[in-house]
Amino acid sequence: MKRYVINTTALLHSWTYDRDWDPSTVLAPVTRALSSLSSLQTLILSIKGQPHRVAHQPLPALHSFKNLHRFAVACCDDLPRLYCEREITPVIEASPALTEFSVQNLRAPTFNRIVRECVSLQRFFNTAKPGLQTLELELVPLPSPGLRDTLPSTLRQLSVSTPPGSRGVDFDWKALWSSLRETRTELSALRVSGSERAMDDMFQYLLTYTGLHKLEIIGLQMDQQQEEDELEETFWGKIVPHVRGTLATLAFTSIYEGNWCYGPSAAAALSQCASIKDLTVSVSMVSTSWADALLSQARNDRRVEFSRLAEPCGSPVNCGALVLCSLEIPLEKLVLKPTRVAAARAADIHHLNSRTRPKDSPHLRRALQQRQQTVNGIEDVLLGMRAPTECAMNWPLTVVVHSLPRLCRRQDANRVVYYERGE
């Protein structure tokens, strides 16, 4: 058994421990074998199983690992405080060359996620000061005290996620952005979800430097529609033009329909971004006059054929066609995210604030059905488009509607069309 474990662990890139299926007897031999590998520089641990049982079952002992360059821990439940302090922190302290660190807490798809156990980033690093370049935090506390001294100015890639408005976790988004600004940290990649109450602070930070290559703002869910509309003006009017020279990946998704979705403002700003290859946008109803003018120009000037357009022209199902016809830049990948109706915002925010789950109802089922119909409609419109090769050079190689990469571009008899993956 010992020889088998050692020979196997020497080939491991990551380790998934399922508390419900893996016997606890494998923990000690596997961790001993892994930690004894002097050449091991990467440790990726995923702890899976039923939520709310982590504290009552044994977990992998990590304190013997050292000299790691990349260290990642993902847990389906709230990481116990003692486990963070006794097993994770010692690894960081024993890895002075650590450049990538990731903690994904409460990964299980539970509705009411509240962080009570997992320690803050400051506690993880305690006395250690590695020159981190990549940091990923999901539902990890980040209070203000000591934050500026914890974040290294060497940081280049940052991914941070909390529930909307950091509900259920002690996370000071304003302090994060001010600390990055004060330490003059220049990120090349930034992914955020949950910064609704400090979006202005984030925008101010992004305007302090150039060189951003990747920007992802995921699942924006402000309490009020007016708040989102005001942010949209800054985002499309200042932020995107500021990073237009270097931005290669951009994602901006909102939960609800509104000005954040792809429309005239987004099209105008993105036309300046010549380097973008991957684009993710939210979609909803747009101005019919703008859509009609855009589609008419595509027919007349680029000889684009549409066989499945919906009425009116500004319908959400036409959004894929509108993106293809309005962008002047060649994309490799386009992701389209349908949104919820604005009228759903008040009820959703109420459930977030009261930590309750919406009850099943005909209205909820109908909303889900309508969303799927929108997804199917977007795909149908794209499958019904075709254009001469020279007029469709900018069309993305792959289009993802909602979550599945189903549509691919191909050339067919001097014309460009889309087909469903798998055909």
Rounded mean pLDDT is 90
Total helical elements: 13
Measured on Cα atoms, how large is the radius of gyration?
24 Å
As for the number of domains, it is 2
The oligomeric status of these chains comes to single chain
Task: Give the tally of β-strands.
Answer: 16
Secondary-structure-based class equals alpha/beta
Q: What ranges have pLDDT less than 50 throughout 5 or more consecutive residues? A: 1-8
Determine the N-to-C terminus distance: 46 Å
Give a short overview:
The chain has 423 residues and is an alpha/beta fold. Helices cover 32% and strands 21% of the residues.
Brief descriptors of the model:
globular, alpha/beta, 16 strands, 21% strand, 2 domains
Task: Kindly describe this structure.
With 423 residues, the chain is α/β, with parallel strands linked by helices. It contains 13 helices and 16 strands. The two termini are 46 Å apart. It has a 16-stranded mixed sheet with strand order 1-2-3-4-5-6-7-8-9-10-12-14-15-16-13-11, covered by helices on one side. The protein has two domains: 1-206, Leucine-rich repeat, LRR (right-handed beta-alpha superhelix), CATH 3.80.10; 210-423, no CATH class. The radius of gyration is 24 Å and the shape is globular. β1 (15-18), α2 (27-35) and β2 (42-48) form a beta-alpha-beta unit. The longest helix has 22 residues, at 362-383.
Task: Please write out the topology.
Elements: H1 2-9, E1 15-18, H2 27-35, E2 42-48, E3 70-75, H3 81-93, E4 100-104, H4 121-125, E5 134-138, H5 147-150, E6 157-161, H6 173-182, E7 189-193, H7 199-206, E8 214-220, H8 225-242, E9 249-254, H9 264-270, E10 278-283, H10 288-302, E11 305-306, H11 319-326, E12 333-338, H12 345-354, H13 362-383, E13 385-388, E14 398-401, E15 404-412, E16 415-420
Helix pairs in contact: 1-2, 6-7, 7-8, 8-9, 10-11
